[in-house]
Amino acid sequence: MNKAQQRTWLNFLISLATLLISSVVIAYVWRNEINIFDLSKPTRIRILGFFCTIPLILVVIIGWRWRKKDYDERDMLINRKANVIGIVGAFVFLGGAAWFLSVMTKMGSIRVPLITFLVYLACFVWILVTSIAALVQYGAGAKEKNHE
Fold first, then answer.
1. Is 70 exceeded by the pLDDT of residue 98?
2. What is the value of pTM for the model shown?
3. How many domains does the chain divide into?
């Protein structure tokens, strides 16, 4: 496994864990009708913000540890194709989430802070879909080598 694949696997695991934990937290907050935007209790949003930065810091550290200048042409091509697929996945997520929130809320409105959370989650959807697309391409390349 080369450095590009290691980076892809780490990004995949971090983004998957972030999205799973976020979905559990969102379900818990929604089910118990907790208002995290209550200005009389600002520690809720600060704690949430603190924990939201941890995965972003991990992704940055991975970027520093495995620089793209060490990649060969095949890795760069796989990364370029996977990135396009990841961007499409993020926009599909944003569209679907915005539609879902507009249907589920009163009068079809979305609170402004929720847009920030959607963009945050879309970032990790982008990383997740990009990682999956890259891993599929690496797997397809390995199968081609075995058939030769």
1. yes
2. 0.78
3. 1
